[in-house]
Amino acid sequence: QVQLVESGGGLVQPGGSLRLSCTTSGIHFRLMAMSWYRQAPGKQRELVAGITQTSYTNYADSAKGRFTISRDNAKDTVYLQMNSLKPDDTGVYYCKALGRSEYWGQGTQVTVSS
Q1: Where are the alpha helices (DSSP H) in the chain?
Q2: Mean pLDDT of 44-73
Q3: Sheet containing 67-72: which strands, arranged edge to edge?
Q4: Strands (E), the chain
Q5: What is residue 33's predicted lDDT score, i.e. its pLDDT?
Q6: Closest CA to 79 of 113, 103, 55, 112
Q7: Which candidate, 69, 70, 77, 68, places its Cα nearest to that of 29?
Q8: What is the pLDDT of residue 77?
Q9: Mean pLDDT throughout 21-42?
Q10: How much is the pLDDT for 81?
Q11: Per-residue CA distances from 62 to 1, 4, 32 (Å)
Q12: Which end of the chain is more exposed for a tag (fewer CB within 10 A), N or C?
């Protein structure tokens, strides 16, 4: 059974930091490209950051310089370090695994507000 479980979301003040984790099971993690998406209220889900099997990374323009995606193949886990958070970063953050099939987690809520 494939599972992607996100954690680390919460309420944070503008300028603060959060570290999201996505722990997976039931997939060959090291063979998967991993990514983080965000869905803000009333908006479509959008790519925030991605990391390939060889740890090449890419970021949305809004995330460049503030967010860092990383992976730990020994723990089957992908991370998203988010710094200098802004209210526009608010949303549900989803983890996606892409190989021969595509898998999504259930999401974790991030709220940036004073």
Answers
A1: none
A2: 97
A3: 3-7, 18-25, 77-82, 67-72
A4: 3-7, 10-12, 18-25, 33-39, 46-51, 57-59, 67-72, 77-82, 91-98, 102-104, 108-112
A5: 98
A6: 55
A7: 77
A8: 98
A9: 97
A10: 98
A11: 34, 25, 24
A12: N
Tokens (6 digits) for 48: 């925030």
Residue 41 is encoded by which pair of tokens?
């209220």
Beta-strand pair 102-104/91-98 = antiparallel
CA distance 80 to 47: 12
Residue 89: the pLDDT is 97
Average pLDDT over every residue of 72-84: 98
**Burial of 39 (C-beta count, 10 Å sphere; 0-12/13-18/19+):** middle
Distance in angstroms (rounded) separating the CA atoms of residues 23 and 25: 7
Q: Tens digit of pLDDT for each residue in 2-26?
A: 999 999 999 999 999 999 999 999 9
